[in-house]
Specification:
alpha+beta; 9 helices
Length: 296
């Protein structure tokens, strides 16, 4: 069915229900003559009279009544579904799907999601843990959470966590048998735990900066892993040095379980961000989640 044919049927149903071209024209925001022409066009297309017109009344014929019975349930269903969508815009509800790294989900996303779901019982949140970048639109996610510097420029990004710094740390036992490195260049002589990048597949090059001068070091070691918790466990077990954002290692440093080194070579970088394709027609539930996560 063509779009103009659907419009014609809506016009016919309105006239038939109102039993008046005048009232139907006012409801549809058009003229009586235009409506009359539309109904005649439908009758000519179907080859049957649908309305009996008198000077005072407009009455559906038997064929018109049958067409009304066919159209009314379909259009009522469309109206109810549109009303439901409008209600979603007015009150928080529905499902929000988010892809996130595990650490960001555990430390930032879940605390906010729990508060939101407790306050709004019609809000559902689905979190998918994934280190890789996914196509939000193709995989039907509403948003993602990643480090700010890794988000594509065409995305809207909202800071939800503070700036971070990379931290190099090893266990106290490791440094009992090995002196601490004094510069990043020294790391080439150390047993370092490499991170296999989940997106590109290569090894993370350890990044440093001092006095505005960046310095990258490719390290080697006995253990390589693409899972951050396992890298932390390996560092705690004394297998070598780990280089991860300070929000991963900082709590363990505070407890004395890890010892940081080369701290004066660490520069800040953007922390976790919520990112999504467009601000257009965001649901109330999603707007609430963005506001709950937004860094203040």
């Amino acid at each position: 069915m063509k779009r103009d044919e659907l419009g014609d049927l809506i016009a016919f149903l309105t006239v038939a229900e109102e039993r008046s071209f005048t009232r139907a024209a006012a409801q549809l925001g058009t003229s009586q003559s235009s409506l009359s022409h539309t109904v005649r066009r439908i009758e000519e297309r179907m080859g049957v009279r649908l309305l009996t017109r008198t000077t005072r009344n407009v009455v559906p014929t038997e064929a018109g009544e049958q067409l009304m019975e066919t159209l009314r349930p379909a259009f009522n269903d469309i109206r109810s579904r549109i009303d439901a969508l409008s209600a979603m815009r007015q009150s928080p509800g529905g499902t929000i799907r988010i892809t996130s790294s595990r650490h960001a989900a555990e430390t930032i996303l879940m605390p906010a999601a729990k508060r939101l779901m407790a306050e709004y019982r019609d809000v559902n949140i689905e979190i998918s843990i994934d280190q890789r970048f996914v196509d939000l639109v193709a995989e039907r996610y509403d948003a993602g959470v990643r480090l700010g510097e890794s988000i594509e420029k065409d995305m809207i990004a909202v800071a939800i966590g503070p700036e971070l710094r990379m931290m190099v740390a090893g266990s106290p036992g490791y440094f009992e048998r090995t002196p601490k490195p004094q510069t990043p260049h020294d790391l080439t002589q150390y047993n370092c735990i490499n991170l296999r990048l989940p997106t590109l597949g290569g090894l993370y090059t350890w990044e440093f900066e001092r006095d505005g001068r960046p310095l990258n070091v490719r390290v080697t070691g006995q253990f390589i892993c693409n899972d951050v918790p396992m890298i932390i466990d390996a560092a705690l077990d004394g297998l070598g040095l780990a280089c991860l954002p300070d929000d991963h290692l900082g709590p363990l440093v505070d407890k004395g379980r890890l010892v940081p080194v080369l701290q004066d070579w660490s520069a800040p970088f953007p922390g976790y961000h919520l990112y999504y394709p467009s601000r257009r027609l965001a649901s109330p539930a999603f707007a609430l989640l963005v506001d709950a996560l937004r860094l203040r």
